[in-house]
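Marked as duplicate of an earlier ticket. Keeping the data here for the record.
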Amino acid sequence: MTELQDVFQNTFKYETVRKTLTQDPKRTAQAQVNKHLSEFVFDYDDTNTLLIIYYAGHGTPGDSSGGLKLAG
C-alpha cells in the first residue's frame, strides 16, 4: 500500500482500487488506462463515487487541445 492509498483508506475511509500498467508493446499505456477507467465506471457508477487518478508515468501532448497521450 502506498502512503497516498493509506491516507484515502485510513484517514478519509474511502475504498480504493489500485491498477498497475504493464509494459506490453501490444497494449499501450493509453489503452490500459482506458480499459481500467471503463471497468471502474461500469462497476462503480454512482452519484456518491469519487474517482481520483494518480498517474506516475510519461506522456506527450495529444492531438486535441489539452489532450495527453500516455506512455509507460
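See parent ticket for discussion. The chain has a mean pLDDT of 86.
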